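Dear colleague,

Following up on Tuesday's group meeting, I ran the structure prediction for the three-component complex that the binding team flagged. I've pasted the input sequences exactly as they went in, so you can double-check that nothing got truncated or mislabelled along the way. The structure tokens for the whole assembly follow below. Feel free to forward this to whoever is handling the docking comparison.

Inputs:
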Amino acid sequence: MPQVPIIMPQLGESIAEARIIRLNVAVGDTVTVDQEVIEVETNKATMGVTTLCGGVVTELRAKEGIEYPVGTLLGFLEASEEEVARTGAPVHGDAPKPTPEKNDEENLHFQLSDQSYEEPKEIEPSVKGLPVPAGTKGANYISPRMRARMDDLGLRGADISAIAGSGAGGRVTVNDLESFLEYVETWPSSKASPMRLAVADAMRRSWTRPLASVGLPVPLDKLLDFRSRQNPKPGLTLYVLRAFALALSEEPATAGFLIGEKVFHPRALDIGVAVQVEDGVMVPVLREVDKKSVSELTQSYAELVQKARERRLPPEEAQGGIATVTNFGTFGLKWGTPIPLPNETLILGLAAGIKTPKWSDEVGAFVPVTETELCLTFDHRVVDGGGAGMLLQKIAQLLQNPEAL
Amino acid sequence: MSVTYIDAIHRAQQDLLREDETVFLYGQDIGAFGGAFKATKGLKVEHPERVLDAPISEDAMVGLAVGAAIEGMKPIIEMQFADFSSVAFNQLVNQAGTHFYRTGIPVPITVRMPCGGTPGSGPFHSQMVESLYGHYPGLVVATPATVSDAYHLLKQSVMLADPVIFCEHKFLYRWLKSAAIDEEALPLGKARIVRSGKHATVVTYSAMVHEAVRAADELSKEGWEIEVVDLRTIKPMDTDCIIGSVARTGRLLALGESFPWGGVTAEVVSRVVAEGFHLLDAPPLRLNAKDSPIPYHPDLWAAHRPTPESITQKLRELLSL
Amino acid sequence: MSEGTVTESVHTQLDRELLRQVYRSMILSRTLESKLSSLYKAGKVVGGVYLGLGQEAVSASLGTLLKRGHDIFSPLIRDQAGRIAFEEDLLDATRTHLGSVKGPMRGRDGNVHRGRPREGMPAMISHLGTGLSFVAGMLLARRLRGQLAGVVGGISIGDGATSTGSFHEGLNMAAVEKLPLVVVVTDNQFAYSTPRERQFACKSLVDRAIGYGVTGHEIDGTDLVGCVKGMAEAVGNARKGGGAQLVVARLLRLCGHGEHDDASYVPAELRESSLGRDCLEVGKEQLLSAGMVTTAELEQWQLEAAEKVQTAVAIAQKESGPDPYQADWRSTSTPGMQA
């Protein structure tokens, strides 16, 4: 038979609880609908809790003298199906009423919500760092519309650098952009290859950092002599790559990268080599260069470079590098400021070996020396000029002992 | 023979009274006297039983209108000045505005609100009330700027099943003339591009439409093309038209004659920022009246509300960003 | 019933059937309200419960003298008896109180605010006095449509409402428009907890009638026969073209403002005075002594009332409340007006 709950009613608009004064019935008693079965007392009045239908009291949880919050289940009646149907009383299992918290206001016209929100004692500043003057006239910014139009055209900040802005503070407005686009449309143009776009994207992202370059002249005669006696002959770049790795193994943090307030160190000295391909550059990566000799690396180096030239390099073999070596000397260049990949801090450039007269105290005359320029570009947030110089000196030293490489 | 804005309101009421027997007019001094602004001149003679002088009881005037509307009538209440509707505020927002939601029974009343300033009218005969009533659910708020809209929007308002706050601008009453009333009416709820342009959009309504056009004229001498949107009704607000215009120009000035805190201009900016942020090439700007009661002296009054000069200045600022 | 016949018969001799009808509504009202109170105490009522205990004679007299489908009756919060007399379905009361979506307000407005405006019963708002002009407007509409003849609009308010500007504007307007509006002020001594001397300074509110240019009537709200007689006179006057009427009934509210209020501010001497009499007790004596009803009949009416109430409660209690996820939030009847 259905069980009909007896609950502590809301006896006032703001009453949260009431004390049971007397139970007018006992378990087993037969009651009728609307009978006052329990007498309760609030701080305002004494009232009776009524039944929603007739039946037999089967359970009384409430005890005399105890205060119960509104909505508390005080007991049960067992009623016939007919009686429940006649009165429409809810049976056990119907959703219970939520129990309101204590509320001290009395006799309010309407119930006030006690679901209060406590104001935090101290307000945490939502912006850290120096106060930034906001909203000043002439602030340089990219408007939402400008941003949307640039996204639409696939443009980046670098693409609009050529546009003289007419907005406040020289800001480039959408009208400026549209005028510029109309202007450049009159120029001959061609579609950039995906390779070109990939390099452009990497260089643009890298260029957001403060990059600095340093250079050091290094004599190559010993290295060239040693190399000429090897079979197969390893590439010159490979010796530089190996020297770079050994130098870094002493100070790996030099190749670390900065994110927020942390410097992340290299997990392994995997170093890439820049390979010029049609309309771009690919960078295959040699693994753990500090742990293998040049002769051990020669074969895999040659294969990687070959795959890169043929554009058959699997992506995983171009990933995970911590620094890169680029031999722009092959183009006869005497120096350069290469740009590291966006996820790397260092790039070491190798210029052309050039035979130059050098004064020799031993011989007492000018002697011909083959010399190259090692050019290191670094993220100045991570490395300073001193660290970069020491690294270059170390590489130069190692290159003077090619047999140890 | 040209038609003034007040002529259009008069003619709309005359036509409504002739065409629909359930229409009646209730307001102070609107009978034999013809109303404070003569919007009902002669109508009492034509319809003695349906053009009634009211006691000075704005609350009861609106309460009476709601009761009559429930019984199938289409009352037009004339507030002598929109400012006095504050006395009827309760009946407007709590009786009329809630009725359909509460009971499912619509309340087809139209409350004519002569609003906005004229020189020398002072703090209690010059107020704009559209933002106030637009805030409340259940009310439609019309703000006609042209002679044809004064006519057609009033007729549409009266025929609408819901309560309409009809804000007619007193400055336009006799100042604004048109050769004729357009045959065709735009639907209630649609905004209109009054003037097309490509450099900036001014979204406005009521008398400020004309001030905005003057400012646009001034700037056109320098080659600026300013688009002017007339909202026509501030509730419903034709967001699509506003966004469409900002899509063309990228710059927004929301212009209104009411007080600056919140209100229609803030609503316009909020909608554009939320739905058309990517269209904005400059921060959206607002221009309203000053945050003070409306002054009495004509010189103070003229400086209190936006003028072609202050609108031009604001537009220059917008265009320079 | 055609207009005029009821009131004419009352003028000559108090109509037996009319009195019996009024009293029967009073019994049903008291039974329903005691059930609503009980449901409230069992935690079943959505919102507050405001009862009309002690005010049944006034309320039912007005409701009975107004004819549904012909007249207008604008009840306030203590007019359960008048609503019953005006043939409001008991289900309207139980459904709103128990939160059923099938009630006339569909969960959108509360218990005593319920109404059926298209059927001559406006749905009051909480702002007191606003109903006077509303009913005046309904009557004016009837006049403009040529349907006012013999129609009366009755509105019930309390003494507190007479302090509002709306009351003044509405009564003045109805008087100016010469509308058949019967304003029944039940002066129950307290507006919530504020005694009448903090509400108005005139000796009796009926004194205001002359100021508004309407006919005033003063009745003892505890006296059934007096109520029916006075109300019939007022309604009859209005029906015959006598313009607006102001009826002031004095009595004591026999309950708190709402069921959350135990009315402890009511002094004992007032409860024990003749104002504190229960109109149901007084009416019972009057009807029995006049031989208009028998004890057996009264018992039968009581039983019938209990049965009707129980049925209406049971139906409403089984119905579900409004579903917030299905709500359309439409506040205008014309689509597209909320953009």
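The domain at 5-320 of chain C is CATH 3.40.50.970 (Rossmann fold).

Cheers,
M.
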